Amino acid sequence: MQALIAGAGPAGCHLAIRLARSGWRVTLADPLPDPRRNAYSSGALPLRDVNRLCIPQACRSAHWWGWQLLNPAGVEHQWWSDDALGVVLDFAAFRSWLWGEAVQAGVELLPGRRVRLQRLDADSAVVRIQANGEASEERVCAHLVDATGARRVLLRQAGVEVDSPEDPLLSGEGSEWLLQGNDRTTARWRDRLSFMLGSQWIPHGYGWVFPMGDHQLKVGICRLAPPTGSRASINTALKRLLNRFGLDQLPVLDRHGGLVSSTVNRRETSGSGVLRAVGDSASTANLLGGEGIRHAMDSADVLAECLVSGATLQDYQLSLKRLFNWRWGVSNRLARRTWWGLNNNSADERIDRLISGLSEQASAEDLSELLFNYRFERYGWRLLPYLR
């Protein structure tokens, strides 16, 4: 069998590798000419998922043992574990590794190429592959996959409804800078994931500082605003955050940004004809923390099994529903309430109560279960003062 995948991020690459190793002929195209370009991802993953996904040590920039949440007033709350809880990826190295694995598996990799859908039928698709400054090439494929992320390029070109009034698409934007520090300037941020929560940091969003190897720091801002929310520059908020922590004088190694989007209940169609969506294009990015890498790769595993077995689109969507269970919807509804409403003193007070409650009664492992595995039922009562 033969497939063409548009988008060589974690979902597209993982799917291409799985299909190629199953004997498929796979073409993988991506607009980026270099996998290290625009390496936008905070890249914090639980350790067990990093090991489960077989992500090599060379892509693991730093381990973290604790959580550090700064409330709207800037007061720090910390939780620590005796063992490492997770890893911060070097996303540029991670994507480079994925591209190399794809080529080694026999995938035809086309960097610097955009895919445009020309015609979509029940048993084939016609696409045009375009490189900057070069003549385009038309191809016919038996299976076509949209792995273009939040933009959902092929789905939109095919006229597939990516949301509905009952389950609208929620979109966020983020900006992240990679800074070079030293032993002194990175001490406050070492060995932990740090988040800044409250409208004083950024309305409708949050900030973060993550440790990297060689005394580097990832510092970023993400905003998930309602349609009528603020559209002020997120880079202004990012610069303000850097200044507040005395990080604005550190050398900037890279600046990158991107989009995150998902529906709350994942009720949209994940394809049409021979077209299938995977990863962020299939609303696998969780909105509470803007997390997408491991969910994208897991959705690629689901799609690979469905394609190899000849499963229908309905089968694929049912499998995704089982993967992203009821906790997913709870998490996304909590995210919508949190980020949409985070723009006033009342919202800041709720955030402060939440952080204080968790500080008194939750462990570092509890926070990981809440934020990565959406285990609300284990201690959901602790959220009640916040949700009122």
Mean pLDDT: 92
* Biggest β-sheet strands, sense, barrel: 7 strands, mixed
CATH H-tier superfamily of the largest domain: FAD/NAD(P)-binding domain
Count of all domains: 3
Tell me about this structure.
The chain has 388 residues and is of the alpha/beta class. The chain folds into 3 domains: 2-39 and 92-166 and 268-329, FAD/NAD(P)-binding domain, CATH 3.50.50; 49-90 and 169-262, D-Amino Acid Oxidase, subunit A, domain 2 (D-Amino Acid Oxidase, Chain A, domain 2); 341-387, no CATH class. It is 32% helix and 29% strand. It has 11 helices and 19 strands. The longest helix has 17 residues, at 293-309. It is globular, with a radius of gyration of 21 Å. Mean pLDDT is 92; it is low at 384-388.
Please give a quick description of this structure:
This protein has helices spanning 10-21, 47-52, 91-104, 153-157, 234-244, 293-309, 313-323, 326-341, 345-361, 364-373, 384-387; strands at residues 2-6, 25-30, 44-46, 60-64, 66-70, 76-80, 86-89, 108-111, 113-120, 125-131, 137-141, 143-146, 169-180, 192-197, 205-211, 216-223, 252-263, 271-272, 275-277. By secondary structure, the protein is of the alpha/beta class.
Mind sketching the topology for me?
Elements: E1 2-6, H1 10-21, E2 25-30, E3 44-46, H2 47-52, E4 60-64, E5 66-70, E6 76-80, E7 86-89, H3 91-104, E8 108-111, E9 113-120, E10 125-131, E11 137-141, E12 143-146, H4 153-157, E13 169-180, E14 192-197, E15 205-211, E16 216-223, H5 234-244, E17 252-263, E18 271-272, E19 275-277, H6 293-309, H7 313-323, H8 326-341, H9 345-361, H10 364-373, H11 384-387
Parallel strand pairs: 1-2, 1-12, 2-8, 5-14, 12-19
Antiparallel strand pairs: 3-7, 4-7, 5-6, 9-10, 10-11, 13-16, 13-17, 14-15, 15-16, 18-19
Helix pairs in contact: 1-3, 1-6, 6-7
